Amino acid sequence: MLTAIVLIDADASRIPEVAQEVAELDGISEVYSVTGDIDLIALARVREHEDLASVVADKLGKVEGVLRTQTYIAFQAYSRHDLEQAFHIGLD
C-alpha cells in the first residue's frame, strides 16, 4: 500500500465543495480542512505508483476549485495508535 499526503490550495469560495468532491474520489481515504498556507490535506492510499498518478493528476487535479497541489509520498508510518494496538494484542 502506497500512502501519499496531498496539500491542496483551493478557491476560497469552494473549500467545502472541493473537500467533499475530493473525499469521494477512489483512492482518497481522508480530507482535512486546515489552517495555514494551504486549505486542505488529503490522504491518498493506493496499491501502485500508477494509481497515485491517476488519483492526483487525473482526478483530484481536475476537481473544480483545486488551484494547486503538492504531493508527498510516505516512506514509513510512525503512529502511537499503531504501537498501542501492537502492545494490546501482546506483541513485543
Automatic annotation (TrEMBL):
InterPro entries from the UniProt entry? Dimeric_a/b-barrel, Tscrpt_reg_AsnC/Lrp_C
Q: Which Pfam families does the protein's record reference?
A: AsnC_trans_reg
Record domain Transcription regulator AsnC/Lrp ligand binding: where: 6-76
Superkingdom of the source species: Bacteria
- One biological process term in Gene Ontology: response to amino acid
Q: Which GO terms describe its molecular function?
A: sequence-specific DNA binding
- UniProt xrefs under SUPFAM superfamilies: Dimeric alpha+beta barrel
- Quote a single Gene Ontology cellular component term: cytosol
Q: Which PANTHER family match?
A: LEUCINE-RESPONSIVE REGULATORY PROTEIN, TRANSCRIPTIONAL REGULATOR AZLB
Name of the protein this chain belongs to: AsnC family transcriptional regulator
Instruction: Say which species the protein is native to.
Output: Georgenia soli
